[in-house]
Design a protein that fits this description.
Strand order of the largest sheet: 4-3-9-10
CATH topology of the largest domain: Rossmann fold
Structural class: alpha/beta
Shape: elongated
CATH architecture of the largest domain: 3-Layer(aba) Sandwich
Number of strands: 15
Largest sheet: 4 strands, parallel
Low-confidence stretches: 172-177, 428-434
Radius of gyration: 27 Å
Distance between the termini: 36 Å
């Protein structure tokens, strides 16, 4: 089966055919670093992490570029988001950028998200943005007014093709202060003149100013991936105006297609005071930071929650939904842990190899799901089905050979760790250091206490381990299985 991608540009699934066989150039719109990242960001970048890892697993040489917006992203008031935060904290704008950029990557690392190959900053690519703006002026697609430059949407016939919006319907909500400068209300800024109090400012052919928001992605994508590349990704909430403007200015400047496939992910939604789902965002103050979420849930649980719904759909956030994902993840993680625990003492051999057919089927089902527009929920379901069969095998009466246990572990690792990122790469049992031996010693001491009916000591040891993330499960045969998550 060929890999199919739902292409937002054409509103249909299409076979994926890269421009260069075996190579994928992918650009994803990155964060505006004016605050700590929240779970809405986690949804977007976990979705693209799974896509990126699956493409690489499939054998593609992926060049993944994700920008950092540190200038030019304006609020509806016309104020730069970075400057607003700097004013609130009485700090310099680049101090704000450095602080939140470091924390953004810290959060992404904690979630197991593979870093992009290139993470360019908008402020470091102002010359490229000025050059592209000048090209658009020279070709008649942009005009200068009193130090600001705007893209002329009426000069570009295809404007609106991504969002399916007509130019004549785009007059609503335009700021009056800006409207007076524009030829048409839908025209968007490529370059803005800087008022005397504006700190972020650069010299340009049109005077001192700063770049608009949309031009940065076109300039940086073109610099690192070329004017025509394979995949452009981002959040569905930015389809208009950001992505729409990107296409228009890029194709007008370069006179060729911009990106062949547009992958846009749905938003993370939370109920408002009336119970109506709305997008999680800083502006609505309805967000949960990634740091706060990680203080309560493991990164694997958060990834399981995100992977449980189709990337294109909005996902409803609630504590109950996270707990449900946690319960499902625990079933998989427990089976993986038990497999790895048994591997430590299992005899060599192929006892129990009847499960090989199930492992092969799981892999086939997983690949079929991911080839169908990166259907992570169906891929995750194949791991749940596998877990049911693995539990039946490991909790049965027959002995299971080490070779079979290794194959089970390899399957979980290949699919659940390397692609979905929901299965821990290692458990404490694999740690050759003293922590694992200490846990086993405490379990042995607890077992003796139970035999001697010293339940106070037994409970004290259990509570001690539980406080440190070690869960004990007493088996009917009086053995104790332990797991650390």
């Amino acid at each position: 089966m060929a890999l199919q991608i739902y292409n937002v540009l054409h509103r249909e699934k299409q076979d994926f055919v890269p421009l260069v066989e075996g190579k994928v150039n992918m650009y994803v719109c990155g964060p505006t670093v004016q605050d700590y990242a929240h779970l809405g960001h986690a949804k977007t970048y976990i979705n693209f992490d799974i896509i990126n890892k699956y493409l690489r697993w499939r054998g593609y040489d992926v060049l993944y570029v994700q920008n950092i917006t540190d200038v030019g992203h304006l609020l509806d008031t016309g104020e730069d988001r970075i400057l607003k935060k700097a004013r609130q904290l009485a700090a310099g704008p680049m101090q704000i950028v450095e602080h939140y950029t470091r924390h953004y990557f810290e959060d992404m690392d904690a979630l197991g998200i593979q870093r992009p190959d290139i993470s360019p900053r908008a402020s470091a690519h102002v010359p490229e943005q000025i050059k592209m703006t000048q090209t658009l002026i020279d070709k008649g697609y942009a005009y200068e007014v009193d130090g600001s430059v705007y893209f002329d949407v009426l000069a570009w016939d295809d404007y609106g093709k991504l969002s399916n919006r007509r130019v004549e319907d785009q007059d609503v909500g335009t700021r009056e202060a800006v409207r007076e400068e524009k030829r048409h209300p839908a025209d968007f800024a490529l370059w803005k003149r800087a008022e005397p109090e504006h700190i972020l400012r650069w010299d340009s052919p049109w005077g001192v100013g700063f770049p608009g928001w949309h031009i940065e992605c076109s300039a940086m994508a073109g610099k690192y991936l070329g004017p025509h590349f394979d995949i452009h990704g981002g959040g569905i909430d930015n389809i208009f105006p950001h992505n729409e403007c990107e296409i228009a200015q890029s194709e007008a400047a370069n006179e060729q297609p911009f990106a062949n496939y547009w992958i846009l992910v749905g938003s993370l939604m939370v109920p408002d005071e009336f119970g109506v789902p709305v997008k999680m965002s800083k502006s609505l103050d309805n967000f949960v930071t990634i740091k706060d979420a990680l203080a309560k849930y493991s990164p694997h649980v958060i990834r399981t929650f995100i992977a449980s719904s189709n990337y294109r759909n909005p996902t409803n956030y609630s504590e109950e939904a996270i707990e449900a994902a946690s319960n499902g993840w625990t079933r998989i993680a427990t089976a993986v842990h038990l497999t790895r625990e048994l591997m430590l003492a299992a005899p060599e051999g192929e006892a129990g190899n009847a499960i090989y057919d199930i492992l092969d089927r799981t892999r086939d089902d997983f690949v079929e799901a991911m080839d169908d527009d990166f259907n992570a929920p169906a891929a995750l379901a194949s791991l749940h089905d596998l877990t049911r069969d693995v539990n039946s095998l490991l909790n049965g009466q027959q002995e299971v050979g080490a070779a079979v246990l290794r194959r089970i572990d390899e399957t979980y690792t290949e699919l659940g760790t390397n692609i979905l990122g929901v299965v821990p790469e290692h458990t404490v049992n694999y740690d050759p250091e003293r922590e694992a031996d200490l846990i086993r010693l405490l379990i042995e001491l607890r077992s003796r206490a139970r035999q001697e009916k010293d339940f106070q000591t037994s409970d004290r040891i259990r509570d001690y381990l539980s406080e440190r993330g070690v869960t004990l499960e007493d088996r009917p045969d009086r053995s104790t299985f332990w797991k650390v998550f």
